[in-house]
Write a structure and sequence with these properties.
Layout lengths: L1 E7 L3 H12 L4 E4 L4 H6 L5 E2 L1 H9 L4 H6 L1 E3 L1 E6 L2 E6 H5 L3 E3 L2 H14 L3 E3 L3 E6 L7 E6 L2 E12 L17 E16 L9 E4 L5 E7 L2 E8 L10 H12 L11 E15 L2 E2 L2 E3 L5 E2 L7 H22 L3 H4 L1 H23 L7 H16 L1 H12 L5
Parallel strand pairs: 1-2, 1-11, 2-8, 5-13, 11-18
Antiparallel strand pairs: 3-7, 4-7, 5-6, 9-10, 10-11, 12-15, 12-16, 13-14, 14-15, 16-19, 17-18
Helix pairs in contact: 1-6, 1-8, 8-10, 11-12
P-hydroxybenzoic acid binds next to loops.
């Protein structure tokens, strides 16, 4: 089997890349280890930057997002039982859209399958070979049969636990990493969101976040210990803790049946460079941000936009300078987004190692961000998404 671009992973990065290439007349095959149902139901991100919304719209996958997505013009920062709004529209003229990652994935799969796109689900034992040669290959097993796919390029869009990044020989990549001494316990609840906009709350007992998916579905998070067992968190205990940490004057939290719950660890992670020979890493395969800035999905989208453009230019003109500079181009944005995600995380979470000074300093920072236009504008500019270069 031959394809111009072999794409490992049918997350947002791999699927969007496949769509952007198709629009340039470039053929690809997407190889995914999980089933279609699994990737379409996975509960993940929910916040789309305006850049992401614009790109999905331009790629012809914006229709349902425009109808069902919730456009938000700000967020609330809450501390010491008071809420302070950061008005994105006024500070930046831009907005964000709440639309679940699973819906983005569904829309992309639908459009690819409707346009003769090739996606192989439940592709087992993926491995990548001959990365420095002119024709790298991907091997998989499908229904017990081995398959080899010859490619001009391979896109490693297989997430943090994928096979592409570990296939790069030792000594090539430099890893930059920070783990955080806490995790997020997240729930999806059948309850109308208790606020029109997202609420990020700093509390003595730890961070809490109120988000949403639809006018009927709330998504809520609590900072917890990374070795916490989900079994120890009954629904009652979760709601109790949310009430405490989100408490605010003249406001109440609406409860509802918990449909899903889970715990996710937090890390900041980058590899440099994001390419090796004809293998290009994109999205979580190359970098992870803690979720506090809502950037992971948006950063994956920014990578594949640059990669699709570089590959298209190569086929159009034979020029490979954009491919050669792919990693450097992406990393400029990656590090700015890493800084923002780390900063939001540090400002809003309780660290066990913090002393009374650190807590006062955090409150000073929250007071500054919510009272200085310059500081609020900096948060807003990053949250809605830095301009695409
Ligand atoms: P994905 O989505 O992990 O997709 C990778 C795909 O590759 C497949 N795969 C393989 N396929 C074949 N062979 C193999 N050996 C394979 N190994 C893996 C996987 O099954 C999967 O389908 O990576 P991608 O495309 O780079 O997308 C990244 C985003 O998913 C991620 O950054 C975001 O979900 C992060 N994130 C958030 N990002 C935002 O922009 N806004 C948010 O509000 C936001 N909230 C979140 C988040 C991530 C969270 N968790 C669970 C980590 C909230 C949470 C709780
Ligand atoms: C979400 O809705 O899942 C969400 C929102 C904002 C974040 C992280 C996750 O910062």
């Amino acid at each position: 089997m031959y394809t111009q671009v072999g794409i490992v992973g049918a997350g947002p990065a791999g699927l969007l890349l496949s769509r952007l290439l198709q629009l340039q007349g470039i053929d690809s095959i997407v190889l995914e280890s999980r089933s279609r149902e699994y990737v379409q139901e996975r509960v993940r991100a929910g916040v789309l930057e305006q850049n992401t919304v614009d790109l999905l719209t331009d790629a012809g996958v914006g229709e349902r997002m425009r109808q069902e997505g919730l456009v938000h013009h700000g967020i609330e920062l809450r501390f010491q039982r008071r809420g302070y709004r950061i008005d994105f529209q006024e500070l930046t003229g831009r907005s964000i859209t709440i639309y679940a990652q699973a819906e983005v994935v569904k829309d992309l799969i639908d459009v690819r399958l409707a346009t003769a796109g090739r996606i192989i689900f439940e592709a087992a034992d993926a491995s990548v070979h001959n990365l420095k040669g002119f024709q790298p290959t991907i091997r998989i097993t499908q229904n017990g049969e081995p398959i080899e796919i010859q490619c001009d390029f391979i896109a490693g869009c297989d997430g943090f636990h994928g096979v592409c990044r570990p296939s790069i020989p030792d000594g090539v990549l430099t890893v930059y990493e920070r783990t955080y001494p806490f995790a997020w316990l997240g729930i999806l609840a059948e309850a109308p969101p208790s606020s029109d906009e997202l609420v990020y709350s700093y509390h003595d007992r730890g961070f809490a976040l109120l988000s949403m998916r639809t006018p009927q579905l709330s998504r809520l998070y609590l900072q917890c210990s990374p070795d916490e067992e989900i079994e120890n968190w009954t629904d009652d205990r979760i709601w109790q803790e949310l009430h405490t940490r989100l408490a605010c004057a003249d406001w109440s939290l609406t409860e509802g049946p918990v449909l899903q719950k889970g715990i996710a660890g937090m890390r900041s992670f980058v590899v440099e460079p994001m390419q090796y020979g004809r293998l290009f890493l994109a999205g979580d395969a190359a970098h992870i941000v803690p979720p506090t800035g809502a950037k992971g999905l948006n950063l994956a989208v920014a990578d594949v936009r640059i990669l699709a453009h570089a590959i298209a230019e190569f086929y159009r003109s034979g020029r490979h300078d954009l491919l050669d500079t792919y990693s450097a181009t992406c990393l400029r944005r990656v590090w700015k987004v890493q800084r923002f995600s780390w900063w939001m995380t540090s400002m809003l979470h309780r660290f066990d190692s913090d002393n009374a000074f650190d807590q006062r300093r955090q409150l000073g920072e929250l007071d500054y961000v919510t009272s200085s236009r310059a500081a609020a504008q900096s948060l807003a500019e990053n949250y809605v998404g830095l301009p695409m270069e």
